[in-house]
Amino acid sequence: MALAIDLPFPRLRILAAIVYGLVLVFLLYRFRGRTRRQIVAGMLCFLAVLAWWVTLRPSNDKQWGVDQSKTAWADVHGSVVTIHNLRDCDYRAELDYSCQWLTRTVYLNQIEGVDLFMNYWGSPLIAHTILSFQVRGETPVAFSIETRRQVGQTYSALLGFFRQFTLISVVGDERDLVRVRTNYRHGEDLYLYRTSATPAFAQSLFLNYIGMTNQLHDHPQWYNAITHNCTTEIYTLKSMKGQPWDWRVLLNGKADEMAYEKGLIVTGGLPFKELKQRAWINPAAQAADHAPDFSLRIRENRPGF
To answer: Are 172 and 89 in the same domain?
Structure first.
């Protein structure tokens, strides 16, 4: 599969996979009746492909889609963080939009909390997570760790296990990152929770996100559907060290339930099922749409806000 998907020469991919299979079958037949030699031959074939596969390196120099054409990065001087290439796309339809790439200055002591968005589009076991930092007197700053796709590419869970996508840290306005999922894409549901993070923790986590964003800007990294995705990357951050491992980090559609059980989100005294029902923001986001106070309106009358 690695040869058929990741070989740099598209016209040779299927041929290379077939040749590999034929060579392997020949070796297993050649050593029939000698199990140990068959195992050694199979492992040598496997290791030969693996040795090639791990040499593949990600790059930021590709023909990217318009909404991912630039990567965010930031300067940090004491408590002042200046974010470059903060994305603000204005949508007319899912695939009809224009993007601005802004520069925004954030003062750490004005970060008061962090909110969690959970985005579902299919299986309830899989979701996309977005963290949004609340800045006193200003609009939130949202971070979305995503697959960076080249022109013509579409996301595939199968391809996500191979070396087809790189990671990108999209830093943007909620009217971009949230509204495209609630108002313009079809079949997606978005839920919003207030976390129990203190201002000090939120500020520390914000800096960790900035560090990861700068790292991906300077040193691209492969996306992997299991090991390097929108949720597992959160748990690599310094502020999250010491958090006990939980299977719901991998099946991240259950991450909000995990956060509920561990006291990481504000519950308002509600059972989880009711809290999740009230966290669904699609109708509110669609009603707010182009309103300048979009972020305030999607939070109205929700537990914790």
So the answer is: yes
Q: Does the pLDDT value for residue 17 go beyond 80?
A: yes
Owner of token pair 């120099």:
61
Report pLDDT digits (tens) over 83-136: 999 999 999 999 899 999 999 999 999 999 999 999 999 889 999 999 999 999
Reply yes or no on whether the pLDDT at 6 is more than 90: yes
- On whether residue 304 sits in a domain, the answer given is no
**Segment (H or E) for 55:** none
pLDDT of residue 239: 72
Domain holding 19, by residue range, is 2-53
Asked if residue 285 and residue 213 are part of one domain, the reply reads yes
- What is the rounded CA–CA span in Å between residue 139 and residue 134? 7
Q: Are residue 185 and residue 94 in the same domain, yes or no?
A: yes
- pLDDT-derived band at 236, boundaries 50, 70, 90: confident
Is 59 within the bounds of a domain?
A: no
Strand partners, 93: 96
Residues 145 and 100 in one domain: yes
Is the pLDDT at 231 greater than 90, yes or no? no
The reported pLDDT for the residue numbered 19 is: 96
Whole-angstrom Cα distance, residue 73 to residue 103? 10
Do 173 and 76 lie in one domain? The reply is: yes
Measured distance CA(100)–CA(103) in Å, rounded: 10
Residue 58 falls within a domain, yes or no? no
Which one-letter amino acid corresponds to residue 258?
A: M
And the tokens for 25? 């079958």
Pairing relationship of beta strands 73-77 and 189-194 according to DSSP bridges? unpaired
> What is the C-alpha end-to-end distance of the chain, expressed in Å?
48
